[in-house]
Structures
1.
Amino acid sequence: MIRVYRSGGLACELSTVDPAQWSMPSGTLWIDLINPTRDEDAAVERALGLSVPTREEMAELEASSRVYRENGVTYATADLITNGDDALPGLEPVTFVLTDGPLVTVRYTDPRPFAMLIEKLGRDPGLCTSGLDMFLNLMETVIDRSSNILSSNAGRVEVIAGQVFSGGRAVGFDRLITQLGKAQMASARIEQSLAGLLRVFAFVGMDERVDRDEPRAHLRSLGRDADSLISHNQSVAVAINFQLSAALGLINIEQSSIIKIFSVAAVAFLPPTLIASIYGMNFQHMPELSQPWGYPAAVVAMVVSAILPLAWFKRKGWL
């Protein structure tokens, strides 16, 4: 699908167009290709005289494939967070194409910042001035959304921390470790997205189209915001690793306590077992067996032999 955002004075219009009959409207500021077909790619390529990257090309990880210039056009691909409200968000590449005319975006998913920008433009149509301004405002919404996702992930980590250190026996460490694993993966994806955005900001900052102080200052500000979010995200990752280590340590302590109970019980029952084994022998000459006090004496001996080790363990602080 092709969406075109164009300026009509102070009014901004969002429309869906048919690629077979499409020619770029006048005043177009933003062409948004959403899961485009080959015909839609070809329509935009004819209108702007540029090459639209395929999905396979967008997924390449080499820096030279992610930010480059071709025929006077700047291409920048960054991984954006999708489904950011989930415990485990996704990560999908989005390509931004800076031309002398409109901004072109190519995406095969629907990150929230695109809808956020459209809502923002609806409230303030004066933002519709050029393709570069569209790019800067879109990047600003991407950073804002990344900040919100990072805050949500940090909040989930805080909740998990309260559960890990609650001190209860029925904490459910298997569930907590699963949640920590998801939080760690979310943190890694957030940092990957922000690192890619930093590379995009640096590359676009060298573009000849960014020839005014205001856009350069805007890009530097976005870079500082992204760098600050990376630092915060790294502190969240450290907290996740600490809580994971603490959870594993508490699991070991709990298992050691269980093993200790079994060990103490085994040692405590060794003397009674020895006594019972002795009097279970089938020797003819065992005088105690013929005495009326033999059975009570054996029972008392077994009880005392069990109590004495327990009292000793208690005195030593092992129980």
2.
Amino acid sequence: MKPLFSVYCAAAIAIAVAASAPPADGAELKIFGSRVTKMIIEDVGPQFEQATGHKLVVLTDVAAVMKRRIESGEAFDLAVLVNFQTDGLVKAGKLLPDTRVDLMKTGIGVAVQRGAAKPDISTVDSFTRTLLAAKSITYLKEGASTIYLDKLFARMGIADALREKTVKPPTESVSEMVADGKVELGIIVIPNILSVPGAELVGPIPDEIQSYIVFTAGVSTNSPNQQAARDLLTFLHSPAAVSAMKAKGMIPL
């Protein structure tokens, strides 16, 4: 269920643009998420901080890891995880149901080291040939894209052929491994590739086999700063945040 953005959005945007002095009693909001969350907060978070006096602290890792940290009882104020992970945390009583909201989505892309020749991935057949011809590939050990890719490669009949040359890091280092020349091809959500200067986006995987990862937010049931976290959720639907999402390869929702 979405918060009442139609009621709050205009006021929040006006505050973000026009406030002349932030309140003195701002809260420190601890935000749990993956790299895509940090990318957006780094871009537009300072506007929210200046307008409200709140401080935003973003802690990131693979979304599955952040979900486990929440389940273990670690304190936080706002989480931005994959939609099914957020839904599980709502069901478990870790997130307030009425704050659950989809923020953005993104597709899966292929990365090579910057300056390297870009392989053909324009069709399912060419994508398959490129994977089979690559000396090495990498995608996350665990993550929403990993669940999909494992099933996809099995369905395509190439899982066994790829297994021996696939590196699955436990952290969000896929694009860095490609940028450093440690692995030939990286497969991960597109914003992750765009965030690493030494990696270059070949393109999204073909439409016929594309899968979009939806990032969904929710406020902690135990947060002492629930109203401030709700205000941040509203701000993340402002024109400034929407523009930042688009610029970084995401699709605002």
3.
Amino acid sequence: MTRRTVTVSAALIVAFLAAPRADILEQVLVKVNGDIITKTDLEQRQIATLRQKDPTLRPDDDAALQKALAEITPAVIVDAVDELLILQRGRELGYAMSNEQFDSIVDNIKKENKLEDEDQFQAALKQEGMTIADLRKQLERTMIVQRVQQTEVMSKLQVTDAELKMYYDSHRETFTTKPQMTLREILVSVPTSERGVNVGLEEEAKAKAEDIRKRLVAGEPFARLAADLSDSPSKANGGLVGPITMDVLAPEFQQALKDLKVGDLTPVMRTGRGFQVVKLETMETATVKPFDESKDEIADRIANEKRRGEFTKFLEKLRGQAIIDWKNDEIKKAWEVGLKQAAEAVPSAR
């Protein structure tokens, strides 16, 4: 984005620093089928996006602000135009928020935020810089957008049994649980100093660990020896660790455990923590979730993938039918960049 692009939104800096401004002569950036998007409309969206993306962004950091604006403005202007097109389609379908619907939503807002009377509610609106008219407009826009998406996109999505089965067969690993195990460990730590590890102390620790292993092989309870002799925090639980999957373990542990049967012990192992003996306490094999139990989950996944594709087609149709009259060349360029970014993002979402 050029310097001029950022200048179009220079008032955004003021918006961060100052109180709400008095009415000013609006600058129209684009007309979409006769409806307008103004400079203030764009700034409000930019502010909301910046606050969500980076709440720590400082209004006095001009370089960072310009960079952030350049990054977000393409997507912001695309969203603004698309939302306006969807709202226009909703009005064509006769969608509007009734007084009863609005009152019901406001009542829920009051209850959820524990606003016990109208004065508290009005104070909360003022704190957000909104009027009751602003709230109604925002809620109605959201409702209309959702209804249009449901009517024009979601209601037309169908997922066949054949698609469900094909997805299940090609994503079998998704419905397969990893083998889980529980272990018991005893750790004999090796004292260290600024000079490193003392060889004599390391040999003592190793000998102690070997002796513990011999006692385990002789039949002494692992949990008791762990509680009495281990230097690991797991001693409080009899040395019990898990359930865990093999892939979270260090390579040396994976190698030592891979051929063990339940109840077997590893040799004494030197690790970064000291000398350890590990017992394989339990092992659960991998399980595959049956197709019939997975159908609802699969249907949701396929529907979401289709929804993205169908919604993109729906927006492309609305854009193609629209009369879009740009009043600012730099914002038009940002819009074109945003469209390109959105098109590139669609394949990765599928």
4.
Amino acid sequence: MSRDVRVAVFRPDDERLADAVELLDSLGATPVPDPMLAVEPTGATPPVDGDTAPDVVVLTSKTGVELLASAGWSPGSATLACIGPKTAAAARDAGWTVALVPEEYSSAGLVAALDGDVHGRRVEVARSDHGSDTLIHGLRDAGAEVTETVLYRLARPAGSGQSAVMAAGGELDAVCFTSSLTVENFLAAAEERGVGGEVVAGLNRAVVGTIGEPTRETAEEFGVRVDVVPDHATFEELATAVVEEAAPTYHG
């Protein structure tokens, strides 16, 4: 495979970005790292005792688990549900018992897994400020009393957007969008850098991958054609599928 397969990745600038770059490099692609999310902790933690203690706590990200663990929080007697294997692994590393990981790593998948078990129970959702409404509405529709704790905010880092300039100029072969917010921040960065009018056309000449259906829907709302949505919502599957889709262009 040619090293000309340039793939933009937008993970936060921590071990997730380093792991993503390493993975793309191992797949034979040329990574173009351009973080579109920065984590800003709020310091908030869910209640664990007293009259407001939840019966079920839902954690949606490894970041959230790590922030809670560093604050000395634990789920107490609550049942712990985690979206995705990495979130669950981080929770177990913190010494917590994980009772549920849905087969589909998404808000809809978790609602489906909990449906029938949460009617009349208190469910605490602890996550970022950009969590999907699907989770809250779905749990309430299932009869749960739902509260939410915002563990961290997600902001667009200053200086982001070089990949948008590259996309507008036809210099990117593929992109990996890992959330609706990364799509929105990428397009906002394009506007900020003066290439908002060209960037969608540039993306539509490239291979666009999204980590799940909500992210695909967001991209398509902005006129971006999505080529790849992996069966499982993991970055590994997304990156592998995107590189495989982009690579044939470079075979002789």
